[in-house]
């Protein structure tokens, strides 16, 4: 098998396992490598391993705000990840290889790396079904904190969420529980792919959109 066939076989294997067993960041690497089949994945896997190792000491922090602050320092100060607002619509911002190289990407691509670090630290974290802008929720006991991975891990209260919803869905949109319902690993990966598919359709590249849909 050639490199792309190996990657497609890996993707099919991921598709056959239970959602909670999916290694989210590894799956995103496979998806990204399908567009760059000659790129070796070892440097990117090493980065994920280093990120996980750096995150593990955060498991000793026992309060929610401290956990979020620890992750934010790691992701946005030490590793220098940032939301790419200047080239937001660049499809490469949804390719995790490109995101790791540039330390910049979309909310969902940076969110995947944030989740990877948080899970390595033993934190309870999930993506949310918020429309238009991918958000994360960290939970500790009864306490919950919603953070925006695109804007440096900013903590968002109900008022922020309401304003953000109206920005993406219109002035008449009202915040409801479905907007901050948790999503699984597959949903996050589909959201990553949908960013590429949508941009292909906007560019009238039907062949590319079909390729992404098949993935």
Defining key terms:
single chain; 215 residues; alpha+beta; 5-stranded antiparallel sheet; 9 helices; 52% helix
Order of helices and strands: HHHHEHEHEEEEHEHH
* Main beta sheet strand tally, sense and closure: 5 strands, antiparallel
Count of discrete alpha- or pi-helical segments spanning 4 or more residues: 9
Radius of gyration: 17 Å
The overall average pLDDT, rounded, is 94
Residues in helix, %: 40-55%
The rounded distance between the terminal residues' Cα atoms is: 18 Å
Backbone structural class: alpha+beta
Uncertain runs with pLDDT below 50, 5 residues or more?
none
Describe the structure.
The chain has 215 residues and is α+β, with helices and mostly antiparallel strands. Helices cover 52% and strands 12% of the residues. It has helices spanning 3-15, 24-33, 42-55, 64-78, 96-102, 107-120, 158-169, 185-202, 206-214; strands spanning 82-83, 104-105, 124-128, 136-140, 143-148, 154-156, 182-183. The strands form two sheets. It has a five-stranded antiparallel β-sheet. It is globular, with a radius of gyration of 17 Å. The mean pLDDT is 94.
Could you give a quick summary of the protein structure above?
With 215 residues, the chain is α+β, with helices and mostly antiparallel strands. It has helices at residues 3-15, 24-33, 42-55, 64-78, 96-102, 107-120, 158-169, 185-202, 206-214; strands spanning 82-83, 104-105, 124-128, 136-140, 143-148, 154-156, 182-183. The chain is globular.
């Amino acid at each position: 098998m050639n490199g792309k066939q190996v990657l497609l076989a890996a993707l099919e294997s991921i598709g056959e396992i239970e959602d909670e067993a999916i290694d989210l960041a590894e799956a995103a690497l496979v998806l990204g490598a399908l567009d760059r089949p000659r790129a070796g994945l070892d440097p990117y896997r090493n980065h994920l391993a280093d990120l996980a190792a750096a995150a593990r000491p955060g498991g000793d922090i026992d309060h929610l705000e401290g956990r979020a602050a620890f992750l934010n320092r790691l992701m946005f100060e030490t590793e220098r990840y940032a939301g790419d607002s200047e080239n937001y619509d660049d499809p490469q911002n949804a390719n995790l290889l490109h995101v790791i190289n540039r330390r910049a990407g979309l909310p969902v691509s940076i969110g995947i790396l944030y989740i990877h670090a948080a899970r390595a630290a033993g934190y309870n974290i999930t993506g949310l079904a918020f429309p238009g802008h991918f958000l994360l929720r960290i939970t500790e006991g009864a306490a919950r904190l919603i953070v925006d991975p695109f804007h440096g891990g900013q903590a968002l209260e109900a008022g922020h969420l309401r304003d953000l919803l109206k920005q993406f869905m219109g002035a008449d949109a009202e915040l409801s529980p479905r907007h901050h319902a948790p999503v699984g690993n597959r949903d996050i990966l589909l959201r990553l792919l949908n960013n590429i598919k949508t941009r292909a359709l906007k560019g009238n590249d039907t062949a590319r959109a079909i390729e992404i849909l098949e993935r």
